[in-house]
Amino acid sequence: MTDGPVEVPKDTDFTLTEIVFPSLVNHYGTLHGGYALQWMDQAAWICATRFARRTIVTVASDRVEFKRAVPQGAIVMLKAHILHVGRTSLTVSIEMHTEEPLTGKRFLATRGQFVMVALDENGRPTPVEQQARPAP
Hints:
- The protein is mainly beta.
- It is 15% helix and 40% strand.
- It has one helix at residues 33-52, and strands spanning 13-19, 55-66, 75-85, 89-99, 106-119.
- Strands 1-3-4-5-2 form a 5-stranded antiparallel β-sheet, covered by helices on one side.
């Protein structure tokens, strides 16, 4: 066993889990779209940061589709996956699934893509190292 830091290999996937509390719903009793987008952006940022180990910012979101309303009390899983690594950017796919806590039934609620850019210490775009995709 080591007392020092352990190097974690680059990962192209990340999952974030949340719960829909009453303060997060709209007048229909479902998750407000702004909170869904915030969670999606958070998951994309964490996934891209863990991969690049650089300062990361969001530069675009693309084709965010709200497929199903997410009711108050639902468990939400946000699955982030790096689709593409460019010279200074990463494209992260996000799928947001909802789970009914009492039945365990899951549904795709929202999906979209986020383009993230790595920055250097002066706030300028900086290269991201590419790596081979892990085998499925």
